[in-house]
Amino acid sequence: MSTTPLALATERYDMDLHDFTRCSWTSSDLRATWQPRIQRIAHMLGELEWLALTSGLRRCALKLIPEYSLAEASRNLEQNGLQLHVLARTSIAGTYRASLQPPSSAGQHAVWTAAADPASLHDFVAAYHARDEERVGELLGYPNCCSVSFAERWQRQGLIDTTWPMAVATRQKRVVSPRHVIIPSATEAGVHLRWLGVRAVFHLPCSFDCAQSAALAAEHRALAEQHGFALEWRWLAELQQQPCEWTALHGIAELKTPLFKIAARTDATLRKYTVQYEGRASSTGAPCGLSFPFQTPISLKVIGSETYKAGLRNPISCTSYDPVEQSEWYHRDNGFSTHYAMSKSHAALVRSAVEYLAANDGNRVSHVLDLGCGNGALLRTLLRAYPSLAPAGIDISEQKIDHARSLHPAHVSNFMTGNLFDITLLTRLPPSPLVLLMIGRLTEAAPEQAKTLLAAMQQQHAHVLLYAYDDYIRGKEPFAALAAKIGVSLSRFREGLFVTTAMLQV
């Protein structure tokens, strides 16, 4: 029998299933561990789309944006000299789709957009509507070999899943039969887990060992680490090192790994096609067996394992453990269910504060006041970025203020129990050029109380950083609409995944 791989397109028959993706996990414990990680990986990749554009790594970018975020995304890009162009409207899908889905009457809608500088955007839109895939790939920064292959497979052959031709084009492969290929290992060019949103590059490579795609993935990794996504990238790399098996039959693809099984739409064939990726190692806790060698054939001694060696190369500093932050009150005092949720929200908020301080010579800002400070954890995070600041806070809860004083022992007298709308309390605190205030404190207070507090801020020449966490915005109106209700103007508006911030113009 011939061992030359067949061209799947020659055996495909005329049938297309509805676009779908289904995922089932090996165990509930693995799902609890890895599903949040995959969500964080997806968020990282969404950020990298823009970072690769604004850093000059690519000339254009494609991104799916919820309709309600379109105006803000456009404004943010304009600050970097970039423009946004809407290519199509689509439905928001919770899982990977090989094609855009037409907007439905129910559910949220999104827009498929292109972003670039004006000249590049004009070229891109023209190439996109002309279906010039090679030119589109060039403007998006994709390797030419991959753009040419994509145009051939996707456009001319009409394939909806390029996994098989990618495997056939892989140089380091073993051909078991005309419809069965084994890949011993893959570089970061592998996108076989794209159905979960896990990929190191944004295009479909020409092969699993495309050197140019691997080089582009390395640039993405450096960009991710530079912007604080090192942990998410390590998770991504760990997933890509998992052994997995892709099979296709009758228009349904199955992707099996030690962690999960995915079912998705693929090109319909009468006979089964198989691609097996041997990978390097399974995740800790993943089951062994269950088909295709999802287990290490030889049990290594602990001291010889890669995990043990990696631990020696990356010792944990004794200063990295903070027992205070492990206390349950540390996040619950501030209304968060987990320390992780609070740290991500506070980190985004602090970035806005640091940007303001950097733009206004932070050395001149001696004090920062948090109105409704909880236990002072937010101020603690801010002081790590600006240690010269002296913190102050007001909160109605005596217990939270006690915690705040324990977190800031050098500034005990700056934390007071009381109503943040009590103007007399402000006179007992040092003047604070920067004030942190949740917008909900103003919108949910009596109008006269809000006006009196804002007037006091104006009298003290304070700059107020308004903010709202994402769960508050989802349950209310957009941030700008809330500001309009209390009659204030905003500047430095910044909408993020965890928190929205703006400077109040008083």
How does this model look, in words?
Helices cover 39% and strands 20% of the residues. The chain is of the alpha/beta class and 506 residues long. It has three domains: 12-36 and 142-316, no CATH class; 59-140, no CATH class; 328-505, 3-Layer(aba) Sandwich (Rossmann fold). The strands form three sheets. It has a seven-stranded mixed β-sheet with strand order 1-9-8-7-10-6-5. Strand 7 (244-249) and strand 8 form a beta hairpin. Helix 2 (28-54) packs across helix 9 (230-240), helix 4 (118-129) runs antiparallel to helix 5 (133-139) and helix 5 packs antiparallel against helix 6 (144-156). The mean pLDDT is 85.
Count all strands and give the number: 17
* Whole-angstrom Rg: 27 Å
Straight-line distance between termini: 81 Å
What is the residue-averaged pLDDT? 85
- Structural class of the secondary structure composition? alpha/beta
How much strand?
A: 15-25%
The biggest beta sheet reads: 7 strands, mixed
Oligomeric assembly: single chain
**Spans of at least 5 consecutive residues with low confidence:** none
> Tell me, what's the shape?
elongated
Count up the helices: 19
State the helical fraction: 25-40%
Total domains:
3
Strand order of the largest sheet: 1-9-8-7-10-6-5
